[in-house]
Amino acid sequence: MSFENKGEMSRVFKLAQKFNCFYLTGLKSTDYKPFVVEGFQVGLIRQDVMKQLLKYPEVFHVSSGCVELNPAFRDYEERSNQVDKVLKELRAENALIALKGWRDECYNVKTEFNSKSFLKMDRSATCLFGIRNYGVDINGYIKHPIKGLCLWFQKRSPTKQTWPGKWDNMVGGGISVGQGILETVHKEAMEEASVPKHLLKNLISAGCVSFYFESERGLFPNTEFVFDLELPLDYIPENADGEVETFELLSATDCIDKILSSDFKTTSVPIVLDFLIRHGIITPENEKDYLKIVELLHVPLQSIYKRHVDKNINDIKENGTSAILQNI
Hints:
Elements: H1 11-18, H2 21-24, E1 33-37, E2 40-45, H3 47-53, E3 60-62, E4 67-69, H4 76-92, E5 106-109, E6 119-122, E7 133-144, E8 148-156, E9 167-169, E10 171-174, H5 181-193, H6 197-200, E11 204-215, E12 218-230, E13 244-251, H7 252-260, H8 269-278, H9 290-296, H10 313-319, H11 321-324
Parallel strand pairs: 1-4, 7-12
Antiparallel strand pairs: 1-2, 3-4, 5-6, 7-8, 7-10, 8-9, 8-13, 11-12
């Protein structure tokens, strides 16, 4: 089995570049400005978003080099409320496409996963500010006596706010305000696939994947906590929250064609690739760009934003992204 064509970049490597399109090209651009809160960079903002934020100088201070949340807002609640008012106005005006997917579910805005949160923001809006997002994913698999290793996939409901009708991992979801990793993974497993509690005891933590994607909606620096779950041969997932249209079981080798198709959710591809690499389906022997692909499953999001910028905030206001990203 080989996924390569001699003399050509492999299709799998091209896919890894696709879900890391911003990491590979956007970070070098001067079209994005750091988003700074309480002296820390927590994101990046595109020109189309900046044009809208200029209408709210009492909330966002837009300079030549960065966008700073008004430092007069002193605590989590005040910052959250002020930003929420702006976002709801922009949503009512249909000013930004990302806000059409409003969830009434918030993500925390912070520099690192375990650091304090500066504010919360509706999850649909975090891509407008390049805020780091965290989620969980379950690779539900079986060891079939004839087909070998097989993975379960879900087809997202056509009414989903994002990626409607696309194929996806068996279970996945974002970590919202007030929820932890295991709490989220158990909740999503029961809602999306009706996985019973006794099977969830077999969850195996399998590390993380990280990538930096950009679409018309915005910027997505994502870290996903990955779990593997071996399921009984007779288990069939059933959706419980109306967000999944159907499920499909595929052999591990057929998974390659599945994720290469335009019908698969781009930002879920890294989880599948990671699984196939860890389980020896994609190897250095059958994938010529193996090392490059592995690197693109673990981009260094933890160091992409310079964490504390108080000391050189004036330099950042003048020089923007170049001053922030000099340590990459």
